Amino acid sequence: MQIMFLQILFYCLLVFLMIGLAFAVQVDRYINKKQRRIMLTIVALILSLISSGYWGYRLSTDGGSAFIRTCLSAYGYSARPVLLILFGDIVSGKRDDRPAWILVGINALIYMTAFFSGICFIIDPVAGFIRGPLGFSSHIVSALLLIRLLALSISEYRNLTGLESFFPLFNAIIIVIAVAVDTFVIHSNTPFSCMDAAMVSCSLFFYIWLHLQFVREHERALMADQRMQIMLSQIQPHFLYNTLAVIQNLCRSDPAQAEAATVRFSRYLRGNMDSLLAEGTIPFDQELKHTMEYLELEKMRFRDRLEIRCEIECTDFELPPLTLQPIAENAVRHGIWENPDGSGIVTIATREYPDRYEITVIDNGKGFDPDKAAEDTERSHIGIQNVRERLASLCDGKLSLQSSVGEGTKAVITLPKEAKDS
Q1: What is the dihedral angle through the alpha carbons of 86, 89, 90, 95, rounded to the nearest 10 degrees?
Q2: Where do you find CATH 3.30.565.10 in the chain?
Q3: Full-prediction pTM beyond 0.85?
Q4: Do 376 and 338 form a contact (C-beta atoms < 8 A)?
Q5: Tens digit of pLDDT for each residue in 274-299?
């Protein structure tokens, strides 16, 4: 009686998990229609296999019909490999399934021989389940499909890192262990099936994996959107118009200088596009060069009113692209440019500490009141918040601003060395 109670509890738990998974899949708006259809098919198939396993055991203990028990066993051994194809559909939908389905079809035909031959298995009224020479057909087919599943996982997600890349391998190990335990340890005379539990676990893990893929794609979309925002913030109409106006004037007064300015302007625009296409971090030298292209263009317009100072003590580190240049632009546009006489000094400095690198950008412009900075929408449009977010996400860096009205602004970029070493 106690064993029967545990059996019912075991199967009820599996069924409730599958019903819950079906409900979650149905209401989940983050997975596409194809993935939803595959997951619901998996749930339906697992529920049918759990039901056939349960009734197969009950009939074996109650001395039920050998024909019905043969039907249930043949169905179980024929349908289980189908799950591996469906799991493969979750991993990748860009391949030809026909060889796998042909293999599953051959496996099903082999188990259909149980109705008229003992070559695969027979259900003896006294001895119970007796495996024949081809009785391990389902195991062999499942092993081949497991290898296929792992190959698909490696091919489709070879760029994954961390524990996420081990999900398919982990599921394959679960299935192998479950088959081994059911075949060589538990056998068929107990009410519990490790394979049933493994199927439920794998379906849950693959559902979680689907969401991990969604998160990864969502992060990529956010990064692309952020790059677009950065690009829009970098292509300032006033800067473009002013630079082109300077070049136009130089064409009349100093053609050689106009040519040099055009080349510098072209390098600046190309540097912007290259930075937007860059993945991860870039060397500081590259970002500094791009920043200096911008500052030299501004100096053409300000002439002697803008002074650029560099106090570079170290360059052997990396940072997100378009990090320093927006800060320097902020110093010119909202610092120097707004001075009463439109003149000032911008200083760029780097310093190495035992645990971090620091980049400072200091201007002696008009400064601002930090308490009112949140209300300054024009200042935030420059992209300071984007710089903060990319520093935090790509290298655990920070950006701090210190300013006083009439005294200028100091921006400090902090890059921990641990982020570089990792």
Answers
A1: 160
A2: 235-421
A3: no
A4: no
A5: 666 666 788 999 899 888 988 888 88
